[in-house]
Amino acid sequence: MQWYYSKNGTQLGPVGERELLAKLASGEVSPADMVWKEGMADWQPAGKVAELASFAAGPSLVNSPYAPPSVQSVPMPGGASIPNYLWQSIVVTIFCCWPFGIPAIVYAAKVDGLRARGDIAGAMAASTSAKTWCMVAAGIWIGLILLWILFAGAAAVFSN
């Protein structure tokens, strides 16, 4: 039996029943896409056609825009994890130098999302950037404290 289906307003087909079932199972054709075969009075959503309903019911949740994304955690080689430096970024932003702490927070916040999507290289780069911005902010803070001590000592020496 030859089937026709409509995807994004375009009529496609004819395809065999097995091919249409495979398209439904893979999500290429959704249960909301309209289908028709000879003998049917009118086009119907694939999920409402009895012969296709069992195949259309399975992937409907997976392809739904409201379904949670399926995230597979990608393990690091050797079991190591990628540090995100988030708490360090927050500390240097609050106590040290906020113009350099904010980029550290932005990069730190990206690490876990990139790793969850499987972008290990991107997560490593974001982790390295977060660490760099934390070190820059902390270094500037230490430098300012040393300058303050130097000027305070010089003021004490020259005030006598």
Task: Give the secondary structure arrangement, pairings included.
Layout: E1 2-7, E2 10-16, H1 17-26, E3 34-37, E4 44-45, H2 50-63, H3 86-95, H4 98-116, H5 120-158
Antiparallel strand pairs: 1-2, 1-3, 3-4
Helical region count?
5
The residue-averaged pLDDT reads 83
The whole-angstrom Rg is 30 Å
Order of helices and strands: EEHEEHHHH
Determine the N-to-C terminus distance.
104 Å
Helicity range of the residues?
Answer: 55-70%
Number of domains: 2
Largest beta-sheet details: 4 strands, antiparallel
Estimated structural class = alpha+beta
Shape: rod-shaped
Describe the structure.
The chain has 160 residues and is an alpha+beta fold. The protein folds into two domains: 2-63; 77-158, no CATH class. The protein has five helices and four strands, in the order ββαββαααα. It has helices at 17-26, 50-63, 86-95, 98-116, 120-158; strands at 2-7, 10-16, 34-37, 44-45. The chain has a four-stranded antiparallel beta sheet. A hairpin with a 6-residue loop joins strand 3 and strand 4 (44-45). Helix 3 (86-95) packs antiparallel against helix 4 (98-116). The longest helix is centred in the last third of the chain and has 39 residues, at 120-158. The chain is rod-shaped, with a radius of gyration of 30 Å. The termini are far apart. The mean pLDDT is 83.
What are the salient characteristics of this protein?
about 160 residues; alpha+beta; 2 domains; 4 strands; about 10% strand; rod-shaped
What's a concise summary of this model?
The protein has helices spanning 17-26, 50-63, 86-95, 98-116, 120-158; strands at residues 2-7, 10-16, 34-37, 44-45. Helices cover 57% and strands 12% of the residues.
